[in-house]
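Worked Example 4.2. Read the sequence first, then its structure tokens.
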Amino acid sequence: MTAHSSLAHTRKAWLCFLDESAGSLTPPVRRTWAPRGVTPVLRDRQRHRPKVSMVGMLCYRPDGSAARLLFGFHRGSYDTATLVEALTGLHAFLGGAPVNLIWDNLKAHKSTAMREFLTDQDWLRVDYLPAYAPELNPVEGLWANLKGGELANRCCQTAEEVIATAQDGHDPGPPGSPAAAVVLAAYRPDLMNPRIARARSER
């Protein structure tokens, strides 16, 4: 990833990782505590399982001066059109600054319509992660934390409750808050310089 950081530094760009995940009324099942002899029972709405898709964008300055965390939600699956909306929101969120985006090889990331959109975005440069390398994308750590924490064993009654719970679990906080720096330091310490790493220990 050193080459990506160097290029972003040369362009004075944000280096941003993007990844999608999904949630539903059927909760991620995790081990938990219960009185001895009492088996916990989860009851979900088997006949009605609306899908909620989530997109996470973790951005940082290669010189370690700043880090930002952005989330989006969508009823159904993300496709090219909704991802274009997410990228447009990212552009506005970062004040129009140039971005080096790193994401996986999802079909929607390489569709004809997406390639046409990317061609017209002089602020945006895109690179793809190697296949089967989720450990290189720190956003994967966010999903693991969320599904092992706030969403774990929680039988939500509506899609709106799933979204609200996910938002509570990963509220990025106001600009300048350490949340994004904490995630980067936890899941990709090789990208961190001492200034950002300290934000993790001070939290």
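Now turn to a second chain, presented in exactly the same format:
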Amino acid sequence: MQQKIQFYTSKLKSKPEIVLSIIFVAVFAFLIVVPFAQMIYTTLTYQSYDLRLERGAEEGAFTFFHYKRMFGSDLSKSLFLKPFLNSIKVGVSVTLIAMFVGSILAWLFVRTDIPYKKFFQTIIVVPYMIPSWVIALAWQLFFQNTRTGGHAGVITAFSGWIFLTGSRMVLSLLLYVLHCITIPIHSFLCQGPCGQLTQNWKRQVLSGDFQESRY
């Protein structure tokens, strides 16, 4: 038994990646799996604040009460359906606008010689470097207004404009995901057949034969 322990110990010392993997899995389970399992357990049991809503309920007893209330009660429209549809609308709007604007920006970066091109290309990747919570706080500071709670944000304070919740979310998410569309299209235009067309187009522009271009 002692020899086996020594054997596995020496094996772990020779492969530190195994030890690191075990540590990371343990940390992952403690920080994510355990809280998630606890959350699921909470949704399947009565809580103290549910006793006034359900007759005969006992705290800690197993139940599907929360799921019935969310998906099958009169409140499901306000608790689930309306927020779900609003999320779909915002997601579709952001995707379509980001694809349109990102495609135009990528084409401008690759096929034109606009001023300050390097500057704009750098700005596009800045969201990659900033944590999501910092961006969320920044947009809240800019778009916050008295109608949606809290104090007036920067835009409302200086211009008096009030961005409603839907438009504010679309603008915020658009500027956050725009680089996710622009960068892949930019790479696509710079590589493969499209990249060859771009290089030919640039050579024709520099040589003065642009009018003979067929693309």
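Notes for the reader: Residues 82-212 form one domain. The CA atoms of residues 155 and 161 lie 7 Å apart.
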